[in-house]
Amino acid sequence: MKIIVQITAMLFFSSGIFAQEWINVFRNPDASFAEKQAAFYSYFETHPKVKGSGYKQFKRWEWMMQNRLKEDGTTPTLNELWPEMQKVEALKMQKSVGGPWTHLGPKYVPTNFVGANGAGIGRINVVAFHPTDTNIIWAGSPSGGIWKSTDRGLTWTSNSDQFVNLGVSDIAIQDSNPNIMYIATGDRDAGDTPSYGVLKSTDGGNTWAPTGLAFALNQNLLVTAILINQDNPDILLAGTTNGIYKSTDAGANWTVMNSTKIDDMNYKPGDYNTIYATGYTGGGNWRVIKSTDGGDTWNTSHSGIPVGDMSRMRLAVTAANPEVVYVVGAGSDQSYRGVYKSTNSASSWTEMSSSPNILGYAVDALEPGGQSWYDLDIAVSPLNENTLYVGGINLWASANGGANWVCVGHWTGAASVSYVHADQHFIGFQPITNNIYNGNDGGVFMLYPGSVNWYIRSNFLAVTQFYRLGTSNLTDKNVVGGTQDNGTKNFKSQGWTRIQGGDGMEAFIDWTNDNYVYCTTQNGSLYKSVDAGGSFTGITPIDQGQALEGAWVTPYIMDYESNSLLYAGYNKVWASGNGGGNWSAISPVLTNVNDNYLQHLAVSRNGEYTILAARNFAVFKSVDYGATWVNITSNLPISGLRISYIAIDDFDSKIMYATLGGYGDGKKVFRTTNGGLTWVNISGNLPNIAVNCIETEISDNRGLYIGTEFGVWFKDNTMTEWEPFGDGLPNVQVTEIEVTEKFKKVRAATYGRGIWE
Questions:
Q1: Helix or strand run (H / E) with residue 443
Q2: Strand partners, 64
Q3: Burial, 48: exposed, middle or buried (Cβ in 10 Å; 0-12, 13-18, 19+)?
Q4: Cα torsion for 476, 501, 560, 478, to the nearest 10°?
Q5: Which of 49, 459, 526, 744 is deepest in the core (most CB within 10 A)?
């Protein structure tokens, strides 16, 4: 079943949609969530959801964004969000509940799965270098802030946890005064976080303040690149999805100079009047544009590069020959379209190669496809104009200007190629040491000149994006959690390990036996371990010979009364009475064509046989373990807001809770005390921020915890208002909360800063 907004979908079908068209719609800041969704599903109606197609990356974004919409289906503007952030900060100053939060991890890269895409900690968008001190490097993550290393990447620290936004897409450092830095906020490649413009530091990254390119536009701006004119550092250029902006007063004021939607931009080495950029000009067209007057005027500079059949372009320059410019282009199917070289400052271009497909999964580059809209970059050696690297899913190198390619970093370490985590977002040469740094979905990797082995440089880079977590009922230091592109991870007293691959989703530990561990991967593939995570067996329900497919994060829970009783939600609720050995459907179809998978499950813990199941826009209840079901959505003011979580009171199963995602002012948390006949709004003083989850506390005061896009909030029966809970938790998206009464711990999974307790 597909989610298709009918009118928009027909428009896309009538124009004959191709891969680059859905991607261009996705990257268009003016396109609505529904339009992006329609374009995507229109394309995948007739194309396989294979590795390298970009399907997974879109589904991650869709899951994140669907609970961040207003009631009319649009996303809020920066001007609308800013007052709510100010409310959050004001309430934090007044809070009185909760002690300090501690980061549980992961802090170190789990390396037990090297060679199987397992040595990773989280995604990195960009790496930047101090102009004179080779020990200092910086890294920006899509939802975990900006990080600094003073030992070339061996260890990292961050002071950006209280930013209103923890996404970073680019970093620029002033050569003459490295204390002056700029960052582009937001997530350039996948939209995990929105952009709040450009921030500036004048003390080497210790503190940050907005520039004039902040909250200035009444739209969803995304800043993709920042440049400093090092001859006159007051002059800045910012490439955005709304065009190229220029400042001549160190960021205080900005002027739009060009309307091209920019993806990449760079100065000609030694010439700050000449700038090259790649971007989308509309109508399916990607172009190279060039300025020779410092960014005031721009012209297309595309001669020799194919018109059309291009879905993304990145560029690179080299100090070894300032006249040389390279562009790597991805075709309409996201595969390798070609590398193009100019030897006359982009006046004309020569195709260096158009095969094999170095942007796909395979180590021999013979498989089709790719996901270049999400992962693509190119870099040229500052010492040799013919030495260049291209990153897509893997890393490739050429010693002859792109004419021939050798795989030098592979996501599984196939064919004895050095292991590098999949999905490359940045490649860059340290200008003094010539070391090569690479940012990908696993973190930061480094290659010494002349070496063939990449080294992990991601320890203490605590940017893991967790979807869900589970905690042991028997052992304090035993936590599992599913992560974006870094598998399911397990924390024990000896540290973190990766115990399952893919995109890890829901995970939990048998409440009677720590040896039984359960986890999922994307779209509802279920797994069980009987040896504490040492190995797993697939236990996905089978219907008519086919494994069931569910939501991106498929709900999967264990009954509180019987540890052998499991539940999973697809379009029906399925149950297993023998720990996943056999499954049966215990509900009718509870979904429809526009709301096609169950998203949440909850079960009572007091022997009253109550199960809740929710899709995006409806809640269902059974009080006889699935024999009969009733819709209890009743007076929940869902409208365009989606249900983001459901829970049942620990003592009385007629008391239930539902949270609504998105930005419906005053529509956040709802409670029923009569089994869903009516619901009461208990949102109270909560700011208009997205609420992701709710957790109940086994206490006389009926404590409630909610996870939001700005931390954890708490309320119980003794309190009249909600309060931010605890001290020191970053302003990060909290995706699930668990309370362990035995150990007096509250644990929170975050999408960008790991797990906290």
A1: strand 443-447
A2: none
A3: exposed
A4: 0
A5: 526
82 phi and psi angles, rounded to 5 deg: -60, -45
pLDDT number for residue 196: 85
> Whole-prediction pTM value?
0.94
Q: Following DSSP, what letter does each residue of 358-420 receive, concatenated?
A: TTSS-TTS-S----TTTS-EEEE-SS-TT-EEEESSSEEEESSTTSS-EEEEBSS-GGGPPB-
For residue 731, give the nearest of 195, 188, 166 by alpha carbon. 166
Distance from CA of residue 188 to its chain's centroid?
10
Residues contacting residue 286 through CB under 8 Å, at least 6 positions apart: 278, 279, 280, 310, 311, 312, 313, 329
Please count the residues of the chain.
757
CA–CA dist 516, 533 (Å, integer)? 8
pLDDT digits 0-9 by tens, 198-227: 999 999 999 999 899 975 444 567 899 999
* pLDDT higher than 60, residue 3: no
Q: Which pLDDT value is given to residue 9?
A: 31
Residue 13 has pLDDT above 60, yes or no: no
Q: 176, 289, 276: which is closest to 234 by C-alpha?
A: 176
Fill in the DSSP letter of residue 157. Answer: B
- SS3 sequence of 187-222: CCCCCCCCCCCEEEECCCCCCCEECCCCCCCCCCCC
pLDDT tens track for 231-288: 999 999 999 998 999 999 999 999 999 999 999 999 999 999 999 999 988 777 899 9
DSSP string, 482-544: EESSS-EEEEETTEEEEEE-SSEEEEEE-TT-TT-EEEEETTTEEEEESSTTSS-EE---EET
Tokens representing 723? 């309060």
Task: Give the 3-state DSSP-derived string for 74-113, with helices as H, strands as E and coil as C.
Answer: CCCCHHHHHHHHHHHHHHHHHCCCCCECCEEECCCCCCCC
Q: How far is CA 218 from CA 82, 93, 125, 709, 744, in A?
A: 12, 29, 25, 21, 45
Backbone angles phi, psi at 265, to 5 degrees: -160, 145
The rounded distance, in Å, linking the Cα atoms of 582 and 539 is 8
Burial of 62 (0-12, 13-18, 19+ CB in 10 A): middle
The 10 Å CB-count burial string (b at 16+, else e) for 352-373 is: bbeebbbbbbbbebebbbbbbb
Amino acid at 175: D
Distances 418 to 376, 434, 455, 603 between C-alpha atoms, Å = 19, 19, 9, 46
Q: Are 263 and 280 in contact (CB under 8 A)?
A: yes
557 CA to centre of own chain: 24
Q: Let me know: does 253 contact 212? Beta carbons within 8 Å.
A: yes
The partner residues of 488 in beta bridges, in order of sequence, read 482, 500
Strand blocks (E) in 229-323:
236-240, 243-247, 255-258, 261-268, 271-282, 285-291, 299-300, 312-317
Question: Which stretch of DSSP H or E encloses residue 44?
Answer: helix 33-44
CA 519 to chain centre: 20
> 38: which residues sit within 8 A by CB, 6+ positions away?
4, 5, 8, 9, 12
**Residue 751: how many CA atoms within 13 Å on its side-chain side?**
28
- Provide the token pair at 548: 């069931």
